[in-house]
Amino acid sequence: MDTGHAFADRYTRVSEKHSSPKGKGWGESLAAYALEHPVDPRTAAQRPFLRMVSATFWAWHSNYDLQKDHFEIDPQTFESKPRRNRERS
Q1: Per-residue pLDDT tens for 2-20?
Q2: Number of domains observed in the structure of the chain
Q3: CA dist 80 to 12, 15, 29, 44, 74, Å?
Q4: Cα(11)–Cα(20) distance, rounded to whole angstroms?
Q5: What is the torsional sign of CA 35, 39, 40, 41?
Q6: How far, in Å, CA of 87 to CA of 69, rounded?
Q7: Are residues 33 and 65 in the same domain?
Q8: What's the domain range around 60?
Q9: Cα angle at 22 between 16 and 27, to 5 degrees?
């Protein structure tokens, strides 16, 4: 088997459950792997999972007015960056 998709198809056919191997355990293992290997060696970029966890954390703990007054979203990268001018737009 060359791909994860081929493995999942084969697993579904031969398992007694006849369901995908991707469940809670799969997700927990994938999250643990991402935490242990935060950079994808194929792209040298931070894993999307970690970016989403970080975004969720900051969204939950951020102050909307402070964020709006002091930061702006870069339209090219969608990253939050300090405002160039401190005036509201």
Answers
A1: 787 887 777 777 776 666 6
A2: 2
A3: 42, 46, 30, 21, 6
A4: 7
A5: negative
A6: 7
A7: no
A8: 47-89
A9: 140
Residue listed under structure tokens 């792997």: 33
72 and 84 assigned to the same domain? yes
Determine the 3-state secondary structure of 71 from DSSP.
Answer: strand
Length of the chain: 89
Tokens of 30: 């994938």
Structure tokens at 40: 């994808």
Give 81's DSSP letter: E
Residues 28-62 pLDDT 10s: 888 999 999 999 999 999 999 898 998 899 888 88
Say which residues have a Cβ less than 8 Å from residue 16's Cβ, sequence separation at least 6.
Answer: none
pTM score, whole prediction? 0.49
d(CA 17, CA 66): 51
